[in-house]
Amino acid sequence: MKLSHVGADFRIVTRTYFRNPVALFFTLFFPIILIGMFGLIFSTVGSGTVTVQVVNEDHNPNGTGYTPTSVAFLNALNKTSVVTVQLVSVTPQNFSTYLGQNDDTAGLVIPRGFENDYLHHTPVNLTVYTNPEAAASAGTVLGAIQGVANGFNLKAACNGGACAPVIGFTSLNVGSQVYKYIDYLIPGLIGFAILTSPMFSMVDIASSYRKDGIFRQLSLTPITRSEWLTSRILWYVGMTFVTAGIMIGTGVFLFNAHVTLTLGLVPYLVVGPFFFVSLGMLAGSVAKTPESAALIGNVITFPMMFLSGTFFQVSSMPAGLQVFAHILPLYYVIDGMNQVMLFANTSRAITDLLVVLIGSIVVFLLAVRLFKWRDE
Amino acid sequence: MPAAIEVDNLVKRYGSLAAVDGIRFSVPPGSVFSFLGPNGAGKTTTTEILEGLRKRTEGEVQVLGLDPWTEGAALHKRIGVIPQDFRFFEKITPKEAIEYYRTLFGTKADPGVLLEKVELADKANSRFDTLSGGQKQKLGLALALTNDPEICFLDEPTTGLDPHARRAIWAVIRSLKQEGRTVFLTTHYLEEAELLADQVAIIHHGKIIAAGSPAEIIQAHGKPARMTVEGSPTLAAYLQMNLGASAVIEDGKVSVTLRDKGDALKILTAIEESGLPWTTFTTTKDTLEDVFVRLVGQMDEGALKTEGAP
């Protein structure tokens, strides 16, 4: 591979792009529009029944089983029919991270001494974790816990004559106490840009360049198909950095987003476009006409656009769709970015990256093999 | 000196259809070779096989001693090609396009000199999508010359261009020949082939039906030159009797075949000596276009008769 060939073609792409006002608009303003739009409206979207992971610290004094009051509280929660309680064995300190890493949308910590405090009318605080990305689930969980706590508070008032509420709760967000919906949205929308920009343009380029004879023209020069494709990948890697920068900047300045900017993000901004430029080229190459190329591109792009954790958490989707999401390459790009930007979960981030990297190499080789400059 | 292009028994089939059906020809280095034929005759398929853009079904093809399909990369460094209806990246200027090709080919071609040569220097910094059809073809020509090629393949380079742009391209083709390059020219315009080509081959239904220099083809397949005067049947009879030549009268015009260049003077002298009234005289001879139309027409007619035969 000659770097001078890649460089020459890269200059052509750069000039073509900067002389196209529509493309310029979409790169510079579309990310701002996306973040702004979703940041403003997404928290109003609704959802259904929610599983609440519970850490019950309130054991019986003899150390066997849980106190009757805490069990009664959890049973009451189950009876609301809007949440399902699931006990887990995690320390309260690690619980937030645990929820984030397992894509859980809600968690509850019942502290040690809950029953004792309740029976003695001493105020006691529950800790409730919800995921701001799943805003409706968060509302459901908080509403259910509030309702059950009110019932218990009334009972306490009748029994003891004290009217002050006994059970209160503190609401925190999954993963960290400071994360908001926008924090989750940023990696999702960077993933959205990594997918859509290269896919749509490469599918179009692959078919229109063939139709216009530009590939035939290039086939008469010493540039190779892999050099040509590499220059396109480099361009979209550059674009992804710009887009990610704009999205993060917009999120931080408009919505006071909190994201961890780490070098761990860089591999995703490189490997993501590598994968989708190659996939776009592959899709455009197997199509016979520009129309069928666009169709193939849409069939690949649209399910991924919505089912990979871009706008909705994968764990909030029906089980069947969750299985489907795990075969979508974009899922691993977005999940990996979530791990490095939010949860600092290096091992899972590396696994995600390896999945995308291996996929990219396979798709790149297939694209170079299947896309032909000339006819048999 | 070995031929620049050597084609022997070339066949290209698409399913059962033979687009090119066993043609053979040879192009000497430094000459302009014109490949003529009606639409769908097999011109572009043959040209693309020679350029290494299309795989042949059968036969031997050598371009500069190389097999265009298997040794395409080596060949492409030594040839220049303008395809039909040349297209390029829309937002790129001619100067940038030549710089791009220059880097790919690793040459030191000067964009200014090349654009001057094809008369496009004034549009050096205009984007491709703002150029006219003729200007686009000129850029194609300039790009085809970026690697200082030994053979230039020009596939209908003047189709759709105005007469001025066409003549500008012709001038470039003449200069290519003067520089010692071989030119393989495919064209619809018979006048263009007659003006520019040293050798011509006419292809129809995938077969070569005539080959040679334009003069040789006209000589072999055209009608003899004739002199025509406006006159009476009596004049026609007089000329036939006194000259022993075939004189035909049609619509008040007496037409006499010219067998050699001295015949014209003899005919005019005989007309004067006859004392019979006559007016305007003209001499006519077949052009390459006349021969082309006749040959293609005869072949189609023959094909129709064969198809209609019991």
The domain count of chain A comes to: 2
What is the number of beta strands of chain A?
5
Estimated helix fraction of chain B: 25-40%
Low-confidence stretches of chain B: 306-310
For this structure, the CATH topology of the largest domain in chain B is Rossmann fold
How far apart the termini of chain B lie comes to 51 Å
Percent range for β-strand residues of chain A: 5-15%
Average of the residue pLDDT scores of chain A: 83
User: What amount of the residues of chain B lies in strands?
Assistant: 25-35%
Q: Major β-sheet of chain B, in short?
A: 6 strands, mixed
Question: Would you tell me the structural class of the helices and strands of chain A?
Answer: alpha/beta
Largest pleated sheet of chain A: 5 strands, mixed
Order of helices and strands of chain B: EEEHEHEHHHEHEHEEHEHEEHEH
Number of helices of chain B: 11
Q: In what order do the strands lie side by side in the largest sheet of chain A?
A: 2-1-3-4-5
| Helical residue percent band of chain A | 55-70%
Query: CA-to-CA gap between the ends of chain A?
Result: 24 Å
Write the layout of secondary structure elements.
The complex is a heterodimer of chains A (376) and B (310).
Chain A (H helix, E strand, L loop, with lengths): L2 H16 L2 H8 L1 H12 L8 E7 L11 H12 L3 E5 L4 H10 L4 E5 L3 H6 L4 E7 L4 H26 L6 E7 L7 H32 L1 H6 L5 H31 L10 H21 L3 H18 L11 H7 L3 H15 L2 H25 L6
Parallel strand pairs in A: 1-2, 1-3, 4-5
Antiparallel strand pairs in A: 3-4
Chain B lengths: L4 E10 L2 E11 L4 E5 L6 H9 L6 E6 L8 H5 L2 E4 L11 H12 L5 H7 L15 H12 L6 E5 L7 H16 L3 E6 L2 H7 L2 E6 L2 E6 L1 H8 L4 E6 L1 H11 L3 E4 L2 E5 L5 H12 L3 E7 L3 H21 L2
Parallel strand pairs in B: 3-7, 3-8, 5-6, 6-7
Antiparallel strand pairs in B: 1-2, 1-4, 8-9, 10-12, 10-13, 11-12
Helix pairs in contact in B: 3-4, 4-5, 9-10
